[in-house]
Amino acid sequence: MNQQDMECCPVFNVEKWDKKSFEWQEKLFIKETLSTLFHIPFPPSIGKKITKMYQMVEKSEANIPDKSEALILFRDPSAFKSEIYYAVTKPVEGANNTSITGSFIAGVFDGAYNTVPKYIKEMDRYLKEKGLSAKDYYIHYAYCPKCAKERGHNYMILFAKI
């Protein structure tokens, strides 16, 4: 077993995602929701939901084989609700199976969780320069808090649905 297999979060490759376009046709995910207070989730609830999702995916053998391609996306449809989308290779028994279809432009940012609104504004400016606008945003956090602290980076990918 190599060192990367022993690490919690795989090393993040900024160039692979930043300012790239993606076309998703019914990309498979399982979905959970959690309560938030003005977009701030209650920390223990995130871990519990992700653990539950991970266990269901493991049991169904639906994990993305390449950890660097695995996505866990967050979307906030309101200030009091967040959705978590866990990418899978096939439907997962007992889970809320869903898919996402659309054209996306990804932007990578490095900063604290509370700077997301600032990054969305930056992404909106970038899209406007290209003659595009975002219909919605999904966010992938590349590192868990522990790995972000160890590596000195808190990378996130903003996927703008255009």
Explain this structure:
The protein is α+β, with helices and mostly antiparallel strands and 162 residues long. It has one domain (18-161): Multidrug-efflux Transporter 1 Regulator Bmrr, Chain A (Alpha-Beta Barrel), CATH 3.20.80.10. Helix content is 29%, strand content 38%. The chain has helices spanning 3-6, 14-17, 43-60, 116-129, 145-151; strands at residues 20-37, 40-41, 72-78, 81-87, 97-110, 136-141, 155-161. A 6-stranded antiparallel barrel has the order 1-4-3-6-7-5. A hairpin with a 2-residue loop joins strand 3 and strand 4 (81-87). It is globular, with a radius of gyration of 16 Å. The model is unreliable at 1-6 (pLDDT under 50).
Radius of gyration, in Å, reads 16 Å
Beta content comes to 35-45%
CATH topology: Multidrug-efflux Transporter 1 Regulator Bmrr, Chain A
Looking at this structure, what is the CATH superfamily?
A: Regulatory factor, effector binding domain
CATH architecture: Alpha-Beta Barrel
| Major β-sheet strand ordering | 1-4-3-6-7-5
| Shape category | globular
Could you estimate the helical fraction of the residues in percent? 25-40%
How many H/I helical runs? 5
What is the distance, rounded to the nearest whole angstrom, between the alpha carbons of the first and last residues?
A: 41 Å
What is the CATH class?
Alpha Beta
Count all strands and give the number: 7
Q: SS-based structural class?
A: alpha+beta
Overall pLDDT level: 89
Biggest sheet layout:
6 strands, antiparallel, barrel
Poorly predicted spans: 1-6
Q: How many domains make up the coordinates? A: 1
> What is the chain-wise order of helices and strands?
HHEEHEEEHEHE
